[in-house]
Amino acid sequence: MQKSETLWHDQMVRKLQINGKSERTQAAYTRAVHQLKTHYKKDPSLINEEELEEYFLYRRNESEWAPKTLGLCYYGIRFYYQFVLMESFLDSESPERGTASRDTDKRNDPQSPFPRHHVS
Length: 120
Prior knowledge:
This protein is an all-alpha fold. It is built from four helices and no strands.
C-alpha cells in the first residue's frame, strides 16, 4: 500500500477500535471506504458530497447491491467522514436524523436512502 492508502486506513482502524467496533465491522467499514476510493481513483478525503450521492446511486441502481450491502457501505463511509475526517455527512439524507436512540429501527425513517424491504 502507498502512504496515502495506509494513512486513511490506519486512521480509520484506530477510530473503529476506539469506538469498540468488532474486527468484522472494521474490515467491512474499511472495505467500503476502499471501494469508494477505488471507484473515484482518489483519496477518500477529496471526495465531495455530490460524488458521494452519485456513488450511492450508482451502487444501488447500476451495481444493484442488496439493501443490506448498500447499508453497510453507507455506514462504513459515514463512519469515515464523521469520526476520521470529523465532518458532517450528507446531513439531509442521514438515516439517523434527529435524536433517535440506538435501539430505534432507523430503517423505517422515510428520509432514509435505504428503505426497509419486507419479507413475506
